[in-house]
TrEMBL record:
The modification 4-aspartylphosphate is found at D55. It holds the Pfam family Response_reg. This is Response regulator transcription factor. SMART domains: HTH_LUXR, REC. It comes from Microbacterium yannicii. It comes from the Bacteria. Residues 152-217 form the HTH luxR-type domain. Residues 4-124 form the Response regulatory domain. Transmembrane segments: none annotated. Keywords: DNA-binding, Phosphoprotein, Transcription, Transcription regulation.
Amino acid sequence: MTITVLIADDQAMVRAGFAALLDAQEDVRVVGQAADGAEAVSLSARLNPDVVLMDVRMPELDGIAATRRILGPGYPAAHVPRILMLTTFDIDDYVYDALEAGASGFLLKDALPEDLVHAVRVVAAGDALLAPSVTRRMIEHFAARRPRAGRATATLRDLTDREREVLTLIGRGRSNAEIAAELFISEQTVKTHVGKVLAKLGARDRVQAVIFAYDAGLVEAAS
């Protein structure tokens, strides 16, 4: 199956470079390019891409606001894309807000070409890009600066003890294989637990589960 991608970045050279790399892949096709957030929202609704590569800082409408519009209830297209944020760790102070808006992961603009291709495939498959250590550092960095959310307490009561263990490990950035090894259960069993956790939390993907784990106090920054 071909993965369709929309690239949103205000730098033409960046868009062209990403497009050339992705179009060279047999399973990826770039269907559009946007120079700002407003154009990204418009093109996303019209082109129905599987993945939107979204720069955080853009004119007219920034990437976070654009992400909220695309993933919000008023989005006109039936097919809602996955959002992969393009960012620089040192300067983007609103990355945590993008996670809460529903972004499925992050990619540094100076990432290796193979990392970009991998990231697109990961989020297109419905997973969250949590494996790179930089993503965990970002989540920890911004979670540490936010107050705990009181709403998390009641929802935690819906989780079994095992599901709470799994959620805690998700919050620490563990993969399914790592969770399986730590809890001495099969990877398939972990997948089942993860699915139940996401359903009970009403979480879109693992990224939102990580946010919940921090908000609920199950995981502390730099733990």
